[in-house]
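We treat protein structure as text, and this decision shapes the records that our systems exchange. The tokens are whole numbers drawn from a learned vocabulary of local backbone shapes. One such record is reproduced below, unchanged from the form in which we store it:
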Amino acid sequence: MSDSFDFIVIGGGPGGYVCAIRAAQLGFKTACIESRSTLGGTCLNVGCIPSKSLLNLSENFSKAKNNFSSVGIETGNVTLNLEKMMKAKEKSVMLLTKGIEFLFKKNKISYIRGKASIKSNKEVIVDQGNSQKVYKANNIIISTGSEPTSLPGIKIDEKNIVSSTGALSFNKVPKELVIIGGGYIGLEMGSVWKRLGSNVTVVEFLDQIVPGMDKDISTEFLKILKKQGINFKLNSKVTGVSLVKEKAIIDITSNETKIRERIQADKVLVAVGRKSNTKGLNLEKMDIMCDSLGKIKVDKNFRTSVKNIYAIGDVIEGPMLAHKAEEEGIAVAEIIAGQSGHVNYNTIPGVIYTSPEVASIGNTEQKLIEKNIKYKIGKFPFAANSRAKVINETEGFVKILADKNTDKVLGVHMIGPHVGDMIAEMALAMEFGASSEDVARTCHAHPTYSEAIKEAALAVDKRPIHS
């Protein structure tokens, strides 16, 4: 293998491997350094992909056990084989990691295994355990992702007190599961283990789940999850977690009443956020500037404070989302190539893959109020959508926010069946600066869930047909 490249990408996650592929497509001699034994980063190995596998499998199990008989599908006694379910999850992960290796070979990208640190603005040291080697590059891209964080005094052991990584691989269903944090990760993993038989309690410091979400959606989401049997302690602070005879003891204090309580669990999932993973990269000695949260500072072209070194994904400002990192990976490769790489941060969707799903893009109603922007609202319930009714998936609604004067779509928020896929229509609409009228006058196939988007757009002008 050569030791000199045009591009060296540090990190083989969604941002890094996509960046490497795009750089190779543009004719750059490219290498990607990854410290894991497999490509794909957190997302593919212990994040997005395995969690979605378990969300799908657990939902199928729950439907077979609780719902099928009511619609004439008699399955008999449905039992859980957790070991087999975990193997199915692991197979999905393996196939996708091998798929990235294939794409690297196809695009003639050098795949270097080892732990990278930056020696100079054109040199990277790779530690492979028994040896070290220096590689040279005209451009270095940092894409090392993020790692779970915890609360002061709470040590994650991945046995009784786990991060999302541990929660993906329990060898038996915990009878009592406490989740600290009511965000995307906590609610997805809570849904998985609730369906498989756990009694799940979510403790959230703020007075709403998924802070930052449009409040109409958050309120509806909480109502639905409670109906599914998940317990919530909102506006509550976890003051400590201790272990007694393989049981976790969680101390909680209400922020409002200051009343303390203590609950016991078999497992505790700490899902209070993630932090940039930049350990060992030698940033300080290289004078690569970071902000107070440890995120690398970059300019509009993803350049760090050091010439020839760039950063993308979870290590820089912005939502810690795989697709955000991918967009940045493509953009930085194109910018270095002299093209017009660009990321529109106003049109990056966010999705929670519970059942029903939650999806959002653009401004929330609360943000528009803060910005003093006058707006109109269009809402349409899935209870009035024919496809949702015949499939008995009627919970939730679509909400469109449009500028009061120009009618331009400013934000879209959905909770309901398949909205994680449906949000792409509104991402495209917003990317092209569409008005709600443009969406309302677009023909949508019948019967589809997406008709709820058309109806919500009609509702902006107070003319929905089916509600």
